[in-house]
Specification:
Strand content: 5-15%
Order of helices and strands: EHEHHHEHHEH
CATH class: Alpha Beta
Low-confidence stretches: none
Distance between the termini: 37 Å
Number of strands: 4
Largest sheet: 4 strands, parallel
Number of helices: 7
Shape: globular
Helix content: 55-70%
Strand order of the largest sheet: 2-3-1-4
CATH topology: Rossmann fold
Number of domains: 1
Length: 152
Protein backbone atom coordinates (compact mmCIF):
# COMPACT_ATOMS: atom_id res chain seq x y z
CA UNK A 1 0.00 0.00 0.00
CA UNK A 2 1.55 3.32 -1.05
CA UNK A 3 0.44 6.90 -1.51
CA UNK A 4 2.02 9.47 -3.81
CA UNK A 5 1.34 13.21 -3.37
CA UNK A 6 1.73 15.69 -6.22
CA UNK A 7 2.28 19.32 -5.23
CA UNK A 8 3.21 22.68 -6.68
CA UNK A 9 1.82 26.09 -7.56
CA UNK A 10 -1.65 26.67 -8.92
CA UNK A 11 -1.67 25.93 -12.66
CA UNK A 12 1.57 23.97 -12.63
CA UNK A 13 0.05 20.70 -13.88
CA UNK A 14 -0.55 18.74 -10.66
CA UNK A 15 -3.76 17.18 -11.91
CA UNK A 16 -2.23 16.11 -15.23
CA UNK A 17 0.78 14.52 -13.53
CA UNK A 18 -1.40 12.88 -10.85
CA UNK A 19 -3.61 11.37 -13.56
CA UNK A 20 -0.59 10.08 -15.52
CA UNK A 21 0.87 8.50 -12.39
CA UNK A 22 -2.45 6.94 -11.39
CA UNK A 23 -2.98 5.52 -14.88
CA UNK A 24 0.50 4.02 -14.90
CA UNK A 25 0.03 2.55 -11.41
CA UNK A 26 -3.57 1.45 -11.96
CA UNK A 27 -4.71 3.52 -9.02
CA UNK A 28 -7.14 6.30 -8.17
CA UNK A 29 -6.54 10.06 -7.97
CA UNK A 30 -7.84 11.99 -4.97
CA UNK A 31 -8.45 15.49 -6.28
CA UNK A 32 -8.21 18.77 -4.43
CA UNK A 33 -11.68 19.82 -3.30
CA UNK A 34 -12.24 22.87 -5.51
CA UNK A 35 -15.48 22.44 -7.49
CA UNK A 36 -17.58 21.65 -4.43
CA UNK A 37 -15.81 24.12 -2.14
CA UNK A 38 -18.43 26.56 -0.79
CA UNK A 39 -15.85 29.09 0.44
CA UNK A 40 -13.53 29.38 -2.57
CA UNK A 41 -15.91 31.49 -4.72
CA UNK A 42 -16.50 33.83 -1.78
CA UNK A 43 -12.76 34.16 -1.23
CA UNK A 44 -12.03 35.03 -4.88
CA UNK A 45 -14.93 37.46 -5.38
CA UNK A 46 -14.92 39.28 -2.03
CA UNK A 47 -13.52 42.75 -1.60
CA UNK A 48 -10.57 43.18 0.78
CA UNK A 49 -13.04 44.58 3.35
CA UNK A 50 -15.35 41.55 3.03
CA UNK A 51 -12.39 39.19 3.27
CA UNK A 52 -11.33 40.82 6.52
CA UNK A 53 -14.84 41.05 7.99
CA UNK A 54 -16.00 37.55 7.09
CA UNK A 55 -12.67 35.76 7.71
CA UNK A 56 -12.84 33.85 4.40
CA UNK A 57 -9.11 33.02 4.33
CA UNK A 58 -9.30 31.30 7.72
CA UNK A 59 -12.48 29.43 6.78
CA UNK A 60 -10.92 28.42 3.46
CA UNK A 61 -7.81 27.04 5.15
CA UNK A 62 -9.91 25.07 7.63
CA UNK A 63 -11.99 23.66 4.77
CA UNK A 64 -8.90 22.61 2.81
CA UNK A 65 -7.32 21.12 5.93
CA UNK A 66 -10.42 19.03 6.63
CA UNK A 67 -10.86 17.81 3.05
CA UNK A 68 -7.16 17.02 2.58
CA UNK A 69 -7.08 15.07 5.83
CA UNK A 70 -10.13 13.10 4.69
CA UNK A 71 -8.37 12.37 1.36
CA UNK A 72 -5.28 11.02 3.11
CA UNK A 73 -7.36 8.66 5.22
CA UNK A 74 -9.39 7.46 2.24
CA UNK A 75 -6.31 7.00 0.04
CA UNK A 76 -4.67 4.75 2.61
CA UNK A 77 -7.85 2.75 3.18
CA UNK A 78 -8.10 1.91 -0.52
CA UNK A 79 -4.47 1.00 -1.17
CA UNK A 80 -2.14 2.51 -3.76
CA UNK A 81 -3.33 5.99 -4.75
CA UNK A 82 -2.25 9.44 -5.86
CA UNK A 83 -3.21 12.70 -4.15
CA UNK A 84 -3.56 15.84 -6.30
CA UNK A 85 -2.30 18.36 -3.73
CA UNK A 86 -1.71 17.39 -0.13
CA UNK A 87 -2.03 18.47 3.46
CA UNK A 88 1.73 19.09 3.49
CA UNK A 89 1.39 22.21 1.36
CA UNK A 90 -1.64 23.48 3.23
CA UNK A 91 0.35 25.08 6.06
CA UNK A 92 2.28 27.19 3.54
CA UNK A 93 -0.94 28.71 2.14
CA UNK A 94 -2.12 29.45 5.67
CA UNK A 95 1.22 31.12 6.44
CA UNK A 96 1.05 33.27 3.31
CA UNK A 97 -2.46 34.41 4.29
CA UNK A 98 -1.19 35.14 7.80
CA UNK A 99 1.79 37.10 6.44
CA UNK A 100 -0.62 39.12 4.25
CA UNK A 101 -2.74 39.92 7.33
CA UNK A 102 -5.71 37.88 6.12
CA UNK A 103 -5.41 35.36 8.94
CA UNK A 104 -4.89 36.71 12.46
CA UNK A 105 -2.20 35.41 14.79
CA UNK A 106 -4.88 33.78 16.96
CA UNK A 107 -6.44 32.08 13.91
CA UNK A 108 -2.99 30.87 12.84
CA UNK A 109 -2.35 29.37 16.28
CA UNK A 110 -5.72 27.59 16.15
CA UNK A 111 -5.00 26.34 12.62
CA UNK A 112 -1.51 25.11 13.54
CA UNK A 113 -2.80 23.41 16.70
CA UNK A 114 -5.46 21.59 14.70
CA UNK A 115 -2.95 20.61 11.99
CA UNK A 116 -0.49 19.32 14.60
CA UNK A 117 -3.18 17.16 16.20
CA UNK A 118 -4.35 15.84 12.83
CA UNK A 119 -0.82 14.94 11.78
CA UNK A 120 0.14 13.17 14.98
CA UNK A 121 0.53 9.49 14.27
CA UNK A 122 -1.71 7.34 16.45
CA UNK A 123 -0.76 3.76 17.19
CA UNK A 124 -3.25 1.27 15.85
CA UNK A 125 -4.71 3.40 13.06
CA UNK A 126 -4.70 1.66 9.67
CA UNK A 127 -3.05 4.59 7.86
CA UNK A 128 -0.12 6.96 8.07
CA UNK A 129 -0.18 10.60 7.19
CA UNK A 130 3.18 10.75 5.45
CA UNK A 131 3.23 9.90 1.74
CA UNK A 132 5.56 7.30 0.32
CA UNK A 133 6.60 9.78 -2.35
CA UNK A 134 6.07 13.54 -2.74
CA UNK A 135 6.39 14.89 -6.29
CA UNK A 136 6.80 18.67 -6.35
CA UNK A 137 6.37 20.39 -9.73
CA UNK A 138 8.12 23.64 -10.60
CA UNK A 139 7.98 26.06 -13.54
CA UNK A 140 8.84 29.68 -14.14
CA UNK A 141 6.24 32.29 -13.17
CA UNK A 142 5.37 33.20 -16.79
CA UNK A 143 4.57 29.57 -17.61
CA UNK A 144 2.33 29.28 -14.55
CA UNK A 145 0.45 32.49 -15.45
CA UNK A 146 -0.02 31.25 -19.03
CA UNK A 147 -1.44 27.93 -17.81
CA UNK A 148 -3.81 29.65 -15.40
CA UNK A 149 -4.96 31.89 -18.27
CA UNK A 150 -5.59 28.87 -20.49
CA UNK A 151 -7.85 27.43 -17.80
CA UNK A 152 -9.93 30.61 -17.75
Amino acid sequence: MSVICVGGMIGIGKTSVAELLAKELGSEVFYESVDDNPILPLFYTASPEEIQAKRYPFLLQLYFLQTRFASIKEAYKQGDNVLDRSIYEDWYFAKVNHDLGRISSLEMRVYEGLLDEMMREIDGLPYRKTPDLMVYLKADFETVLKRIGLRG
